[in-house]
Amino acid sequence: MLPFLLLLLPAISPASAWMPVEDWESGNVTASVGELGQCVCHVYLPETTFPADRVQHMQQVSTDLILEVDIQRNKLESYGGRLDVYLKELMDLTVRVAMLESSPDAYIKLDFELLRIELREFEAIVSQLKESLNSSSPMFDSLYTEIRNMTFIVNQLETFDKNNLEVIRIEFAKLQKKLEECQIEQEIIKPDIGNCNNTGILSISKPMVIQLNAHLSPGYQYGGWGKDSKPIRGSESMYFYGAYSTPSVHAFVLYSDYDQLLLRAGYKQHSITHGWAGAGNNYIVHGNAIYYQINSPFSMSKLNLTSSLKEYRVIPAASQKFSYSYSANQNLDFAADETGLWVMYASEQSKGKIILAKIDEKSFGVADEMNTGVFKPQAGNAFMACGVMYATRSVDVSTEEIFYAFDTKTKQQKHLNIPFKKFQEKYSNLDYNPTDQKLYMYNNGYYVSYNVRFNKE
User: Which helix (H) or strand (E) holds 153?
Assistant: First the structure.
């Protein structure tokens, strides 16, 4: 037998590396006799080197494709969610247009204009979505058609809105008249801050109802609000508020300005600590301090708004038996005007008639006492203005009147008849503020204010 030698030779062509074995031709295997007479077989095998660079390239391409697919899928999901929202709003618009079509006389020109604006916005949204998806579909074409139809209907319906336009003109005329009346009243009652060259209050403006209290609760009907009657520098715009569901006093809230009061924001709260809880609601803020009544012991209390220090002074003659007609526990009534700080109360000796006393702000004591002719339970409230004490009482459910005045300079008293309107029947706080010559009333849970007109003849 001849010796056998097998030679394995790689294929020259790289393409043969991917050729299946069964596809090899017979020419890939040859035989011959060697120099020593042995049998030599020549077998041509495919390329044996593994193409790692190609596999790496394919893996990178596959990763990029998967990432792109994820991005496109997320975009489609996002657009799908937005389309759901827009289609729902579009359905709402369709209903509104149908209502307009059924009864066009019930709507005003502003309704049509708002609809047109919203339709233009929807048309822009559909265009944006179409460009983002870079495609067109029957859904987009249908949306465009529906929006154009709705716009046409709105424009057509507006031409039948003549009656409503006439109503709007009448309403605008009424509003303009009210604004003119308000402007005239503001010009008549023009404040003259700090000037007391007058013979007393001549009239009170209509009530300006600001809003419901900061607790947004009509149940907080006992309280007060207003401004510091003698503000320190930097606190000229500050407003205060305090209220509760009973005549008790538990906390005061301070707002930096009028806007913050309306927004119920940016406030600073002073909670009354145990043993210093107040009663009644005739407190005021004066000289960066709150003056209010406490019952244990029964006395007037002072809370410094900067240091939070508290102190109290007992008024021996003051009695807890006499309060105003609208609320209980209003035994001590604090007031301030151009001439200083005051406190009003009744005693057993005065038989329930109001005693007016000047408060010495430095010593926090009573400097002077004057007897008036007002039986306190008959009065709704009382306040000071330009050195004169004014007392109020109810006329009817919607009307109050200033019926009494006591001049601290002349010690003279007189009866008046100065009516003014109330927003609600009962109120728990009424105070004059000399910094703007306004009355501040806490009217059954609402902030109410009045302009004061003085007789300057």
Answer: helix 138-158
Tell me how far apart the alpha carbons of residues 354 and 347 are, in angstroms, rounded to a whole number: 8
- CA 270, 274, 275, 277 dihedral sign is positive
**Residue 287 tokens, joined:** 């000289």
CATH code 2.120.10 for 197-454: yes
Angle subtended by helix axes 109-133 and 52-102, to nearest 10: 160
> What residue ranges in 201-288 does DSSP mark as E strands?
201-204, 208-212, 222-227, 239-244, 248-249, 251-255, 267-271, 278-285
Better-scored residue on pLDDT, 314 or 155: 314
The rounded distance, in Å, linking the Cα atoms of 288 and 309 is 12
Lookup: tokens for 348: 């057993």
Classified as helix, coil or strand, 386 is: coil
| Residues 438, 450: Cα–Cα separation, whole Å | 6
pLDDT interval class at 222 (50, 70, 90) = very high
Closest to 336 measured CA to CA, from 386, 409, 280, 393: 386
- Helix spans in 159-216 (H): 162-188
Name the more confident of 283 and 159.
283
Amino acid at 37: G
Q: Are 281 and 428 in contact (CB under 8 A)?
A: yes
Domain ranges across the chain: 4-45, 77-188, 197-454
Instruction: Give 25-80 pLDDT, tens digit per residue.
Output: 445 566 676 666 677 666 655 555 556 666 666 667 667 667 766 676 666 666 66
| Strand pairing class (298-304; 4-10) | unpaired
Report d(CA 75, CA 81) in Å as an integer.
10
CA distance 242 to 310: 17
Contact 448, 423 (CB under 8 A): yes
Query: Edge-to-edge strands of the sheet including 333-337?
Result: 333-337, 340-346, 353-360, 365-375
2/180 Cα distance (integer angstroms)? 131
Q: How many whole angstroms separate alpha carbon 272 and alpha carbon 335?
A: 21
Contacts of 75 (CB under 8 A, 6+ apart): 132, 133
- The model's pLDDT over 164-209, given as tens digits with 9 standing for 90+, comes to 555 545 554 554 555 555 555 555 566 788 889 999 999 999 999 8
Ramachandran sector of residue 404 (left: φ over 0; alpha: ψ -120 to 50; beta: rest) = beta
